[in-house]
Design brief:
Strand content: under 5%
Helix content: over 70%
Radius of gyration: 21 Å
Distance between the termini: 48 Å
Number of helices: 6
Order of helices and strands: HHHHHH
Largest sheet: none
Structural class: mainly alpha
Number of strands: 0
Length: 159
C-alpha cells in the first residue's frame, strides 16, 4: 500500500471512531438519565453489548467514509450515501436493542421492535439533517472562496 492510501485509511479510521465515540457517549448519557428516572439498572454485560455494538457501527462508518472517496460516491447527493447504509445501521441497532431487552420481553411485547425502529429512524434523520447542514456550509464556504478567487483574478485578465 502506498503512503497516500495509508494516510487516507488512518484519517477514515480516526473520523469514523470519533463519530462513533460521540454517539456512544451520548447513548450512555441517555441510558444513564433513563435509568436514574425509572430506577432501572443496567447489568455490566449490557454495557459490553452496547460497546460492541458501537464498535461494529464504527466499522460500518469506516467503510462508509472510505466509499465517500470513490468517484461513484462523489457524484451522489449527501443523503443517498447515508440511505444506502441505513439498513446496516438499523439491523445492528435493532439486534443490540433486542439483545439487551431479551427475547422473552420482545415476544411478550412485539411492538417494542417498532418502537426501537422509530427511535432509530428519528435519531438517524436528525443526524442526517445536522450532517447535511454541515456539508452545505462547507460547500457554500468553498463556493464563496471560488467566487472571490475568480473576482480577484478577473482583474489580472483584463490588464
Amino acid at each position: 500500500m502506498d503512503m497516500k492510501r495509508v494516510i487516507q485509511v488512518k484519517a477514515a479510521l480516526t473520523k469514523a471512531f470519533s463519530i462513533v465515540a460521540v454517539c456512544f457517549s451520548m447513548s450512555i448519557l441517555f441510558i444513564g438519565v433513563f435509568c436514574a428516572v425509572t430506577s432501572f439498572s443496567v447489568e455490566g454485560m449490557e454495557l459490553v453489548k452496547i460497546w460492541l455494538t458501537f464498535f461494529i457501527l464504527g466499522g460500518i462508518t469506516f467503510f462508509r467514509i472510505m466509499i465517500d472517496d470513490t468517484q461513484w460516491a462523489k457524484s451522489k447527493p449527501f443523503f443517498v450515501k447515508n440511505i444506502i447504509f441505513l439498513p446496516l445501521y438499523l439491523v445492528v441497532t435493532l439486534i443490540m436493542a433486542m439483545s439487551i431487552v431479551g427475547m422473552q420481553e420482545i415476544m411478550a411485547r412485539p411492538y417494542l421492535v417498532l418502537v426501537y425502529a422509530v427511535i432509530f429512524l428519528v435519531t438517524f434523520t436528525v443526524r442526517q439533517l445536522v450532517g447535511y447542514i454541515i456539508e452545505k456550509a462547507k460547500t457554500d464556504l468553498m463556493n464563496d472562496a471560488l467566487e472571490s478567487f475568480q473576482k480577484e483574478h478577473s482583474w489580472d485578465e483584463e490588464e
